[in-house]
Design goal:
The protein contains 8 helices and 18 strands. By secondary structure, it is α/β, with parallel strands linked by helices. Helix 4 (291-301) links the parallel strand 13 and strand 14.
């Protein structure tokens, strides 16, 4: 079975706890704290693997977790960072939040690597908490919590042209004739059980990608058969080529077939009918004398749509070049960029709506920003990465912290403590 949808639970690694220990040396009776920091938990990273074309790796395993960071040790030894979890997906995979269905990221175009969950920050060892009045702190900071999210991986193949039509109309034969694809060909219904992509490789015809969408049936939009499993793959295509059995070898009427398939497209996604359609009447080598009359009848059946209609034979090659040139001419009217689904939610920076927040000035002139919101944010934001630091700046602005600091009289060059981190303030 072709796997183009999977639900999985992802977990980042927990940060290792900071360690509590003190120097114990023969000639140092009152050694200070030397507890090391915990290691950062592993991230969950999604990467595109262009050699993959299904999500079959996720059919039988539904939970994936990055490694936890190690606890800090004695003698200022830092805990080892947890190993990142790297999950490979085919190009065109959309990651959705399972609960809401919102798009987290579309692994298409320039997006080939995405950190979906950041591991918890490592906790600070007790050496960081020594002060002039507390020289032997017996506590350390625990590591940041791991984060988890249930997501749906949904593959929408990336192709310029979607080849649609009922089973057994010759789509596989057509694809094998005009592209580099080698689909199985047989005179059976539903021979093709997965979308097959092929690059047009025909003399004097520009290259473009065609996806053979498996045979549709009436009721596909309602989930009958494997309808929903395949209709989603049409959504990224720019042009639809509707292949029908022009010779009515199995007693089907070409006009009725076109109307039936279009009805299924409209039920599934009304926008699909706004895509340009080209009608290809296949198997015309069987009834060559009826070719002109059939082309005229099909055109007259769709006066408003004004579909271009071509009579072809995938077996003999008749009309293929004319059809391919017409497809390419239609494609040239569209930008070559792939349709990208915009991100609607970022699971790595969620759940900050609740919690406490305080900003105040100390007698020594430094400023303190603290509270559970700050602790939560710092617990899973990697300030060493550009993405994490940009989010940190946005968080300060969105939470009104910058304004609070100005109200407290902060000036450029002043020191600001955000949690356990010190920054020099600059007005931007």
């Amino acid at each position: 079975m072709f796997a183009d949808r999977a639900k999985v639970l992802l977990c980042s690694g927990k940060g290792g706890d900071g360690h509590v220990s003190f120097r114990r040396e023969k000639y140092v009776p009152d050694g200070g704290p030397d507890g090391g920091d915990g290691g950062k938990g592993g991230d969950v990273i999604i990467v595109v693997d262009k050699s993959m074309n299904t999500l079959s790796d996720y059919r039988h395993c539904h939970k994936f977790a990055a490694q936890n960071g190690e606890e800090g040790g004695k003698k200022n030894c830092h805990g080892k960072k947890g190993q990142d979890l790297i999950l490979k997906v085919p190009e065109g995979t959309i990651i959705r939040e399972a609960e809401s269905g919102k798009v987290i990221m579309d692994m298409s175009g320039d997006t080939t690597r995405y950190t979906i969950l950041t591991g918890g920050q490592g906790g600070l060892g007790n050496q960081h908490f020594a002060t002039s009045t507390m020289q032997a702190p017996k506590y350390a900071k625990p590591g940041g919590k791991s984060r988890q999210i249930e997501v749906i991986l949904e593959l929408k193949v990336i192709a310029d042209v979607g080849l649609i039509g009922f089973p057994n109309v010759g789509k596989s034969t057509f694809l094998s004739r005009v592209t580099n694809a080698q689909p199985k060909i047989a005179n059976y219904h539903f021979t093709t059980l997965n979308p097959i992509l092929g690059v047009v490789n025909y003399p004097n015809v520009p290259e473009f990608v065609i996806a053979d969408i498996p045979g549709l049936i009436e009721g596909a939009a309602d989930g009958i058969g494997l309808g929903h499993e395949f209709l989603r793959h049409i959504q990224r295509t720019k042009v639809l080529v509707h292949l029908v059995d022009g010779a009515s070898v199995e007693g089907r009427d070409p006009v009725d077939d076109i109307k039936a398939i279009n009805a299924e497209l409209a039920k599934y996604d009304g926008d699909l009918l706004s895509k340009p359609q080209i009608i290809a009447l296949n198997k015309m080598d069987v009834t060559p004398d009826e070719k002109e009359a059939l082309v005229k009848r099909v055109k007259e059946a769709f006066p408003e749509e004004n579909y271009p209609v071509y009579a072809i034979s995938a077996v003999t090659g008749e009309g293929l070049k004319e059809l391919l040139f017409a497809i390419n001419e239609t494609l040239e009217k569209f930008p070559r960029e792939t349709k990208i689904y915009e991100s609607e939610v970022d699971p790595d920076h969620a759940d900050l709506s609740e919690g406490t927040l305080a900003v105040y000035r100390k007698p020594d002139g430094t400023f303190i920003v603290e509270g559970t919101k700050i602790d939560k944010m710092l617990g899973y934001t990697n300030l060493d990465s550009e993405k994490g630091f940009v989010f940190f700046q946005k968080f300060l602005r969105d939470q009104g912290i910058n304004k609070m600091l100005k109200d407290q009289g902060i000036e450029e060059g002043d020191t600001v403590w955000v949690g356990d981190l010190a920054f020099e303030y600059y007005d931007s």
